[in-house]
């Protein structure tokens, strides 16, 4: 007998569809059922604070006026293991388009570089992104994508969010991915974050790989990209925390595809009434996915790329006690309601001494997290 869902082609035989799953190295959070939808984060945060709902899960958009996809689940399960479950093999998935083309992305980086290098504006960093349109040979489920993503990630990071709560075009769509970046986490009065910014590609030769990491740790350009993120997170958390501990220098961390500069941040909440969702709203969008100054960078990104939807937003959970964890929505894709169309996203921080060709290459490597996991031919 096949294990439930392992070889089934009939969707009805698959495990129950969850509106939200977050797999992390230290455990998994799974939401079951939906008792309320919220397309405004402030309404969800109020409902949680006033005890009207017992938990909130879902995703925040990149743009402040975009709809959120947040729900109050019927139950929120915590398990100490990362996520794994029987899943169907994925069909062939191919790239059908680049949004925009690689050439246009390079042109956009060059335009931003001219602004960053000119004297008459105060922009210091802008994160530009591009997308790839993908198509599966037959419909896939968000669950099967999530299992492929968590199995391919050395730390088993993976997420799945039903975006229906955002309404309109998001109805029936799902966000899936494997983010390495913790926006903010709250447990009791303890607040932690692990921002990443500054990147270099991994190499299959261990010597070259190590040398790349060492070069990244000493790269003035990457340290500058990183410092913008730290400054913004410090400014957001300082009013909310006591004993905020931010190491002077970042350390090098890795995913299967990339080295990143990362800084482990820790603090204690002044007011235990501030929930993990409140904290996520206070720090989002960081210059890891937006830029510096925030508003000017965001306006430029929206004018250049158009609406990013949920890419470069945040996704996570928060319970009645206010505890929770929110990740930065990167290394991700949106699955269309038909189960066939997917859009994958990748971006990178641009500062005055960035190189356009390197920036394009960085996004290509970042796409690898989703494309490798889903076996997309390139
Ligand atoms: C924007 C992305 O990643 C972010 C940008 C990084 C950078 O510019 O070096 C590094 C990690 C992430 O904070 C992405 O993966 O799409």
UniProtKB/TrEMBL annotation:
Residues covered by the Chorismate-utilising enzyme C-terminal domain: 105-366
The keyword Isomerase is annotated on this UniProt entry: yes
Keywords: Isomerase
Keyword Isomerase among UniProt keywords: yes
Ranges in coiled-coil conformation: none
Reaction(s) catalysed (UniProt annotation): chorismate = isochorismate
EC number annotated for this UniProt entry: 5.4.4.2
Signal peptide region: none
Gene Ontology MF, one: isochorismate synthase activity
Family according to the record: Belongs to the isochorismate synthase family.
Protein name as it appears in the record: isochorismate synthase
Natural source organism: Rhodococcus pyridinivorans
Lineage, uppermost ranks: Bacteria, Bacillati, Actinomycetota, Actinomycetes, Mycobacteriales
